[in-house]
Amino acid sequence: MLKIYYLLKEKIMKQPLDKITWRDREELKPNNYNPNKVAPTELKLLKISIKEDGWTQPIVINPDLTIVDGFHRWTVSGHEEIFKLTKGKVPTVMIEP
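Above: the chain's sequence. Below: its structure in token form.
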């Protein structure tokens, strides 16, 4: 049983989510292929969610710090009230392309 636990723990520790890094939002680069458009109302709701619940999802980035997923979270992180929550830091996980 102990061996299974350690094997599972090893697999879990290799997951990107196990390595969340808080980075300055200015370090990240938006991608040039994001097809998503979000209405201002949706961005407002995202801001409310982060203000009330905190950061519940990281921003996914490549090794060159280009955003793969989470562009809208990154966008609202520049708004003053969200920026203040973590002094401009955003949670990220890095994936290898």
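The radius of gyration is 16 Å.
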